């Protein structure tokens, strides 16, 4: 787990701009969704094609957070990544052709085959029958064509989104940014997120709290999700 804090100069900048640090101090449970993103073998397993080692260190916190929010009536979403490949052509050709080296391309594409074992939830995470599992095929789960997430959120009357998973600065941040711009109140959970380095993790959270939403740890989230 990343052991970093948002720098004091960022805290001061945020307070100067809006006269307070945290934006949100209460989320009604049934109007709230917890999104856990990309916690699947492709990213979590040792020696996997896109391994994020720190992701294994946030599992305990994610399990605790999901358990407590589930009891309060919050919707729990497990969002994993998959890309369809037909005749060796991926539905995200730009990414695989330009951003993935040739020597790992085939391995990564195979790992992300929809429904394959590497696209399913990591075995140490504790899901229950009422939870919602969906696939996405882009970094953000909320851009058009990526997933059914927005449609489900709107149908459930969700106003507030809480985000954990991996990577902090890629799929989690991308989804969080889109959520804010689609008028969802959005929070990143600092100790339920993982990146490839402390620096990338902190930079993502510092950007997010300045422009896109709020940042809390999992214990603080459990406290603010409550009936009033």
Summarize the structure in words.
- This protein is of the alpha/beta class and 228 residues long.
- The protein has a domain of 157 residues: 3-Layer(aba) Sandwich (Rossmann fold), CATH 3.40.50.
- α7 links the parallel β6 and β7.
- The longest helix is centred in the first third of the chain and has 14 residues.
Task: Spell out the key features of this protein.
single chain; 228 residues; alpha/beta; Rossmann fold; 6-stranded parallel beta sheet; two-stranded antiparallel sheet; 38% helix; globular
Topology order in helix (H) and strand (E) letters: HEHHEEEHHEHEHEHEH
Please identify, by name, the CATH architecture of one domain: 3-Layer(aba) Sandwich
Largest sheet composition: 6 strands, parallel
Q: Major sheet: order of its strands?
A: 5-2-1-6-7-8
Strand portion, in percent? 15-25%
Cα radius of gyration in angstroms:
17 Å
Give the CATH topology of one domain.
Rossmann fold
Please count the helical segments: 9
- What is the fourth-level CATH superfamily of one domain? Isochorismatase-like
Report the top-level CATH class of one domain.
Alpha Beta
Mean of all residue-level pLDDT scores: 96
Tell how many strands the DSSP assignment holds. 8
Low-confidence stretches: none
Helix content: 25-40%
State the end-to-end distance.
32 Å
Short structural summary:
This protein has 228 residues and is of the alpha/beta class. The chain has helices at residues 8-18, 41-44, 59-72, 93-98, 102-111, 149-155, 168-181, 198-211, 218-224; strands spanning 32-37, 75-81, 85-86, 89-90, 132-136, 160-166, 185-194, 214-216.
